[in-house]
Amino acid sequence: MAISIETDDGVVEAYLTGEIDHHSAGELREEIDAAIGRVSPAKVILDFRGVTFMDSSGIGLVMGRYKLLEGSGATLELRGLSSPIKRVMRLAGLDRIAVMDGGTKK
User: Fold this and answer.
1) Quick one: CA torsion of 66, 70, 75, 79, rounded to 10 degrees?
2) Average pLDDT over all residues of the chain
């Protein structure tokens, strides 16, 4: 798993690549949370375009970032979701807490 993070004008954008599993999720959380702490963003974007595999740790990664942002007024957006990953995220109810692929929260 690799991550590239860009920050610009109140936005933190994390580009995720490879596999998100129990072993990689902790490092991803730390890097994303550090960027959020530095920027205090109005929006956090998690880009899954390069993700080849995701287990329940990916759901936990999204939920944890939502809880970190909750109450700050910042929004969470998920982009580049493959059909299988989008389906799993919808089943987990993440479409109620985050904007998915340019849509709106339900």
Assistant:
1) 0
2) 94
Nearest 5°: CA angle at 48, between 43 and 50? 135
The pLDDT of residue 106: 59
pTM of the model: 0.93
List CB contacts of 69: < 8 A, sequence separation 6 or more: 36, 44, 75, 76
Amino acid present at 101? D
Percent of the chain with pLDDT over 90: 92
Reduced 3-state DSSP string for the chain: CEEEEEEECCEEEEEEEEEECHHHHHHHHHHHHHHHHHHCCCEEEEEEEEEEEECHHHHHHHHHHHHHHCCCCCEEEEECCCHHHHHHHHHCCHHHCCEECCCCCC
